[in-house]
Structure formats: structure tokens, C-alpha cells
Amino acid sequence: LAKTTQPISMDSYEGQEVNITCSHNNIATNDYITWYQQFPSQGPRFIIQGYKTKVTNEVASLFIPADRKSSTLSLPRVSLSDTAVYYCLVTFGNTGFQKLVFGTGTRLLVSP
Amino acid sequence: NAGVTQTPKFRVLKTGQSMTLLCAQDMNHEYMYWYRQDPGMGLRLIHYSVGEGTTAKGEVPDGYNVSRLKKQNFLLGLESAAPSQTSVYFCASSKREDQETQYFGPGTRLLVL
Predict the structure, then answer these.
(1) Does B107 sit within 8 Å of A102, measured CB to CB?
(2) Residue B32 lies in a domain
(3) Which residue of B has its CA nearest to A99?
């Protein structure tokens, strides 16, 4: 059964580093792990994507261990504007149309 | 370049009524998707399309129909709305070669009484 698991919520303070983990057993071997950010009353938007090891962009870092059974989104020095829901998106299956599954989301609240 | 747009933004229906949600994208993407989002359940795929004239069922297709007559448009229909279909509906699109990078519309909030 294709399933991803994320913590329901996390709390942080401005300036701290936040790490959000998504667990995903048996994902496709050759596909990306992608993270999205969603603000209230908006659609999700792409943050970062990776296949293995570590990926960094201007917004976040993504850590993927060798077994690819989980991934961790790292937000350095969060601000109030990082308060949002964060979703991981993974692919299950290696044939035909990829079975893309979103995690249930992690609600991050950043306080002053 | 508007990206992905959805019409309407909000709608109230009575049980048994029908309606169509419209999604349009101007990025020339091959793939398009309809999701519903409910509290605590994340995004669940209703139907998707890999090209003009083709559609397929996702995780929760019952009670919905779709059509993709033009590459840029993807329509989601509710033939006989039920209270269980109260949700926020998101449309998304992607390139064929990068399905993990999806571009989402702003959503349609639907309330079925």
C-alpha cells in the first residue's frame, strides 16, 4: 500500500532551523522526491526536489538517505512567513503512469 | 502568463444538483490533474489526463467525471452533488517528463448542502 507519513504539526520560533521528515517505504527507485508549500486559500507550490543525498536551493535543503525510505525538508532560519503546510510528494511504482502520492501534510507554525 | 486558473472560486450547491469546475493552463503542459483537499487527508487525486482526449481515474474518482477536449482545459463534473463532496478542489498541470513538479491553481471551495 502506497503511503507517506508526516508529522501533523510542528511549532518553531523565528530564526530557528526546522526539519520536517516524510517517511515513504517502497517508493519508485528512479523518481524524485518533491516538497510543496501551501499557504491558506492558495494552491500548493513547489519548494524543492531531489533524488538522493542532499539538494539545496535558495529556500530550503532536502536530505535523502541512501535507502530513500524517508526524506527531510530543512528550512534554515525560519521567519513568520514560513508558517504554512508542507507536503511531500513521492512516486510509487516504476511502470506506466507514475502513482504520485502526496503526504497528509505538516502544519508549521512559526512564532515571534 | 497566468499559469493555472480555476473557475469558480466558490460555489454552494444543494444535494442532487450538478456543476462543472473549469481548469485552464497556459504552460502547454501535457498532464493535468484534479485533486480534492479535506482536513487531515492531504491532497487526493480524483482524475488525471495525460493528453488531449484522454482521462483516467485517480484515487477517489467516484461521483466525478472529467473531460479534456482541449490541451489547455480540464473540466471536472459533479452530476449529482452529495454532502460528502464538500471540499476544496485543486487543479494542477505538469510536463510529461516531470510529473513530480506540478503547478497548482488557486482552488475552488465547494459546499454541498
Answers:
(1) no
(2) yes
(3) B58
